[in-house]
Amino acid sequence: MPVWLIVIPSLAISALCLLAGTSAAIRRLSVLGSIVSLCLGLALTVLVLSSGGILDGSSYFFLDALGAYLILLVSILALAASLASGDFLEHEAENEGLGINSWRIYYALLHIFIATMLFVAIANNLGLLWIAIEGTTLASAFLVGFHRRRHSIEAAWKYVILCSIGIAFALLGTILLHHASLSSGLDTGLLWTSFIETASRLDPKAVKLAFLFAALGYGTKMGLAPMHTWLPDAHSQAPSPVSALLSGALLTSAFYALARFYAIAVRSLGPEFPGNILIFFGLASLAVAGPFILLARDYKRMLAYSSVEHMGFMALGLGLGTPLALYGALLHAAGHSWAKGLAFFGAGRILQARGTRKITKASGLVATMPETGIPYFAALLALAGLPPFSLFVSEIMVLASGFGAGRYWVGTTALALLVLAFSGMTHHAIQMGFGPVNGSERKTPKLSDGQSVPKNLGWLLIVAVFLILLTVLGLRVPDFLDAWLTVMTRIILSHA
Length: 496
Description:
mainly alpha
């Protein structure tokens, strides 16, 4: 089966949404396309895992266990975003006068954005991988500025400029890697599969520079400090379903690209040089995010800085370079995707109900908006790293790996910074969930949780699926996923 088929449903739905005549038709098309993409992703995953190798390897496209993992994470969150976007746009239509053309543009851009992230997962050519990552910027920038307000437009421009500058470094890294191949008498043709086989014969000096630039470039897109400054503005100003995709899917796609470069570098240079670079960026991200989470006043910016924290932690796991650390980082990617998706979807409903992004004015949610407040509270606890959620397990794995490998200063520093972020997140979770409710907040909100079950069906489905996934993986990693994660660690750390 050609793996490029995975992008076809999203592209087709994008075009059809532009032609649809009603908002209801657009909603149905979006959900249908997302379901088809998810089913196709599941089929490709079964094929690649059952084959035990690479599916449809070519000069341009391929799929291995690592790419299949990204496809499923993106597809699951994309379906949830399609469901949540309908409620979001309905509220905008009722309260802001949003017209049918805005519906068409929003959903068309949304599915192009999804298609670019799926394209990242199947690119064998590192040049195409770079194009796909850059494509995610161009597609999502218009969604960040969707509201066309001063702050959202500023955030969109900041996002485009900083990420384009950052991704230019990744392009330079790709060019340098190609140079390393040619100077060593090889012609890999920018194929990741060829680079993996010939990595030990590459010019090490050129590989060092290539990885450094790739880490800067894809690290910018991933939101690693100090290249993270675009992220809080973009995530806070974007429509909340888009924020969920930016945090839970886009940042994971950038992590995926960085992991591909890391796999080449580790075979060429050994683990020390690329590992130390990633550990630096990881700890820097944790150090930057912790105080901003603790002192946050805006709950969407709080969630944005939480993304910086979790991406830093995933970079740390990759940089430690042990099978357990990488296993934990990959498991963390799934947990973060689902928890952050649920949190941003919930934040969008809170914003429409309360009309404010201030934490102090969005308190008492469990009492006043239980259908939204309880899942949102649970999502914040999951992001804080509390059991029984999977993020607790993945954090323990990475920290244990650091201490087990004798990197005591890394483990101790990371633990201290995680405690700081934990303190901030739990404090805000308790305040928003159970804080005092003033008189104005006791009034019926603009978006009421007292809607009928059919009206809230999409939201209830998102809550049920994401909380079940987070809890089940926090209690026990199923055997099939354990084997899958193990295969992915081998792909990155050694030739599988």
